[in-house]
Each structure stands twice: as C-alpha cells, then as structure tokens.
Amino acid sequence: MTADDIVVVGAVNVDMVVTAPQLPGPGETVVGPGMRRHGGGKGANAAVAAARSGGTVHYVGAVGDDDLGATALRELEADGVGTDDVAVVAQEATGVALIVVDEAGENQIAVGAGANGRLGADVVEAALRRRLPTAGCVLVSTEVPGAAVAAAVRAATAAGVRCVLNPAPVIPVVVELLDLGPVLTPNTGELFALAAAAGSGPPPSRASPSCKEILTCAQALVGRTRAPVLVTLGGDGVLVVDSDGTSRHVAPLWVEVRDTTGAGDTFNGVLARELAAGRRLDEAARVATVAAGLSVTAVGARNGMPTATELAAAAAGA
Ligand code: RIB
C-alpha cells in the first residue's frame, strides 16, 4: 500500500464574486456587471487543486446544514475530493466570501466564517486517525479555529507524515506550532507577520520589502523550524528556502491575469500533491508554481486550476 494520499484541513466557502473596474476604497461603492457564485475557501480550493493534479484527496472541514453547504460538498465531490470527513454543523450557515475582482485581476475578500469557525479539534483528530495511515502529506490552512489547526499539525507530526502549513491568515497558534517543523508557505505579508509574531526577524524597512529582506526573514524562520519555507511572491514567482537555509527562486509562468483569487491555494494543493508523490522540494515547487500561474487565467478561485494533463503540458514547456 503506497502512502501518497493528501489530507487537507481548512475552510470551505461559497464565493460571491463581482468583477468591477476597480476595488472599492473605504466607504466607496463600485458597480460591476453582475455577481457570479463559485466554490471557495482556502482549504477546499487547495483540495480541488490537489485532486485535479492527480492526487487522492481527503478534505476535512465543516459546512452548515443549508443549501450552500450541500452545494459546496457536491462541487468538491464532482472534482473527486473525498468529503466523508466533513462535519455538517446543525443550525449554522456555510462560510461565504464576498469578493471584488478588478480589471488587473487583483481582489479584495471579506469572509463570513460560519461553520468553518465551528470545526472542532475532535473532528480533525478523528479524521486524521482514519487517513494518516495512507497519507503522504497533510496540508493545513488557518481560516479555521486554532485548535483544529493545532490538532492537524500535531497529529501529522506525531505520525511522521510531512505537514505543509499555509499560514493564511497568520493566527496566534501558528507560532506555537513552529517548533514542530511544518513546511511553511506564507506570502510576503504573512512571512513578515509570522516572523514578527515569532520574534524571529526584524520588520521590513518599507511597505514593499526587498528580495534581500524577504530572504533574510525566510532564513530566520527556517532557523526556527529547521524545515523549508516557501514564500509565494505573487507575480514574481516563489522563493524556496530549504531546511539548510539554501535558497532558490522559482520564476512565474507568464500568463494573462484574469483573477488572482485562489492562486496561493492552487500552489499549496499542488505542492502537497507533489510532495506526497515523493517529488523533491524544488521540483514540487516548480510544478506548483506553474499550476498557480495557470489558475489565474480564469475568474473564480477554481476555474483556472489545471487538470493533471494540462499541468504536465505546461510544466514541460516552462
Ligand atoms: O484564497 C482564496 C479564498 O479565500 C477564496 O476562495 C475565499 O473563499 C477565501 O477563503
């Protein structure tokens, strides 16, 4: 029996997306042509990315006992994601994200957590007891309660299964988990927020930190976790700092950007899939970066996520 399944712990949302000429400022109203509903949530999005790229995926999360929850589960199952470990929370609403996307594909997101906020550590522990024997990687993101995040990282570590922790957003429990040595995948803002919270690095000198500042900060975190840190740099690709502190830049895929929503989730899902399949870190990061590049070519977090065939073709040419 090969242990290459991927277990994903994190949030599932229904995304209500409006495309508009620009993002609204405080107190401002912007008007777009209409609202589109898409599947969302960082955990569920990453689960879909991992499944589309060929992985056997078990998603652990929570939905409400409402129509949106039933739809969210149907969509995951249609993408081949296992939903047997999802809790259906009585008298709770499924998570919803209100998203505005501008003409450059940049977004603004507000999330109503709903049932995601009720995901219990007991649900996570029970799911991981079932799934860890066949798991090659556990991917955890932090739009769910800290106790659920901690339960996932602790169980994976205790079982010796590689754990990827996407600190999006940076919540206090992430700092407590650093010593367990999860692979971290922050974006630049999360990197500095995490380093500040962990007391392991100076803040950047300006709003847009230099490459050197990003590298120094990531290496400081590696010094604490003794595990790789992969910093997603948006349109600038990914910085990979390995557990020995050596670094490498992965160039982005050049594409026409329609919507950046879910690019980080795609990166994380495909990274987890590649690591579970036994790929080396730098190769896994390269393939995941290609997948993230493809994901931004369509509106909606999941619409641009590649299938295994599409990803293999794009990765071969990248
Ligand atoms: O990372 C993108 C996701 O963040 C969206 O799908 C939205 O649901 C929020 O969770």
From TrEMBL:
Domain Carbohydrate kinase PfkB per the UniProt entry, residue ranges: 4-307
Keyword Chloroplast: no
EC number(s) reported in the record: 2.7.1.15
Annotated metabolic or biological route of this protein: Carbohydrate metabolism; D-ribose degradation; D-ribose 5-phosphate from beta-D-ribopyranose: step 2/2
InterPro entries, A to Z: PfkB_dom, Ribo/fructo_kinase, Ribokinase, Ribokinase-like
Catalytic reaction annotation: D-ribose + ATP = D-ribose 5-phosphate + ADP + H(+)
Residues that bind K(+): 259, 261, 295, 298, 300
Listed SUPFAM superfamilies: Ribokinase-like (SSF53613)
Residues that bind substrate: 13-15, 41-45, 143, 265
Pfam families given in the database record: PfkB
Catalytic residues (UniProt): 265 (proton acceptor)
Cellular localisation: Cytoplasm
UniProt-listed HAMAP family: Ribokinase
Assembly and binders: Homodimer.
Function: Catalyzes the phosphorylation of ribose at O-5 in a reaction requiring ATP and magnesium. The resulting D-ribose-5-phosphate can then be used either for sythesis of nucleotides, histidine, and tryptophan, or as a component of the pentose phosphate pathway.
Protein name: Ribokinase
Species the sequence originates in: Pseudonocardia sulfidoxydans NBRC 16205
The gene coding this protein: rbsK
